[in-house]
């Protein structure tokens, strides 16, 4: 990190993008987004440019903010039993009850959406299947990035906005 500044009572650090680790970018809002890798990729393994990674991160962040659910994306090999691996990945999330995992293994031609019990109340299987069909259609056109963005938007739209409790009924 290059410098620290003081703005409105908060310490602000500026980051030199050249100092960021592989898979990290500074988003348009100034936030650092970092992809978590399960194995070290080679340059041919990375299907997205830094700006595409930033757009995916923004889409995940917006879907999570708008719905109150935790949206995550896994892209890579899902092993011999993709459904079991997806469930395992979902269970590793911070709060799996309210989480939605979109898992895509292009080489295996597998796309799965895994929802926790609370998330499933707002995002039933039928809605998830529609999003998967939309993603698969884009993937068939060699548009992995666009398919993921579209699928995340569809899932967030189907889940709807954050649930709010009414102030007079919250204390009953």
Structure characterization notes:
Helix 1 runs parallel beside helix 5 and helix 4 packs antiparallel against helix 5 (144-159). The chain contains six helices and seven strands. With 172 residues, the protein is an alpha+beta fold. The chain has a domain at 71-159: Diaminopimelate Epimerase, Chain A, domain 1 (Roll). Strand 6 and strand 7 (110-115) form a beta hairpin. It is globular, with a radius of gyration of 18 Å. The strands form three sheets. Strands 5-6-7 form a three-stranded mixed sheet, with helices on both faces. It has a two-stranded antiparallel sheet with strand order 1-2. Strands 3-4 form a two-stranded antiparallel sheet. 41% of the residues lie in helices and 20% in strands.
Helix/strand layout:
Elements: E1 3-7, E2 10-14, E3 24-26, E4 32-34, H1 50-67, E5 70-75, H2 82-91, E6 99-105, E7 110-115, H3 117-122, H4 125-140, H5 144-159, H6 167-170
Parallel strand pairs: 5-6
Antiparallel strand pairs: 1-2, 3-4, 6-7
Helix pairs in contact: 1-5, 4-5
Rg, Å, rounded: 18 Å
> Which architecture name of the domain at 71-159 does CATH use?
Roll
Q: What count of helical segments does DSSP give?
A: 6
Order of helices and strands: EEEEHEHEEHHHH
- Counting helices, strands and paired strands, the structural category is alpha+beta
In the CATH hierarchy, the third-tier topology of the domain at 71-159 is known as Diaminopimelate Epimerase, Chain A, domain 1
CATH class of the domain at 71-159: Alpha Beta
**Major β-sheet strand ordering:** 5-6-7
